[in-house]
Amino acid sequence: MKLILTVFLFIFNLTLSAQSNQFAGDYTRSLSAEGKHIIEYKLTLNQDGTFEFHYYTKLQGGSPPEVNKYGKGKWSVKDNMITFSANKKEDIDDKYTLDFNKSTARFVTKNPRDKSDKVVKTKLQFLESEIFWMKRIDIFKV
């Protein structure tokens, strides 16, 4: 009986780690206008359920001309929906100022049953966020 229970728990843990492998990784998006303006989003979802985010802008004539903003915290998945959270005491400080609480993103990839030649880039599409400029942003898996 112990052997059966051990095997069951082992298979269950493999399934959980395989699902998080699908989502974990680096995501990025870069928008630019021929050397005038640059906006970059970089998000890393780690295997251990933590994330780091970096937002960079360089706007010609902007005040300030360059901005770096950072965020970090934890992420979890349920049905291709990723929920982000940040502990205000541990994850938010002088460097990491972005609060990702109440942020959700949809994981979008090509359906495995779709046998067409259509190319669908794997991405995260932010649906909700208290960071106003994060709503409806798509960032693509590298």
Radius of gyration: 18 Å
CATH arch. level architecture: Beta Barrel
Which structural class matches the secondary elements? Answer: alpha+beta
Question: How many separate helices?
Answer: 1
Number of strands: 9
Span from first to last CA?
A: 44 Å
What is the H/E string?
HEEEEEEEEE
Helix content: 10-25%
CATH superfamily label: NlpE, N-terminal domain
How much β-strand is present in the residues? over 45%
The CATH C-level name is Mainly Beta
Signal peptide: 1-18
Protein name: Copper resistance protein NlpE
Pfam families: NlpE (PF04170)
Keywords: Signal
What does this structure look like?
The protein has a single domain, classed as Lipocalin. Helix content is about 15%, strand content about 45%. Strands 1-2-3-4-5-7-8-9 form an 8-stranded antiparallel beta barrel. The longest helix is centred in the N-terminal third of the chain and has 22 residues. The radius of gyration is 18 Å and the shape is flat.
Key descriptive features of the protein:
142 residues; alpha+beta; Lipocalin; 8-stranded antiparallel barrel; 1 helix; 45% strand; flat
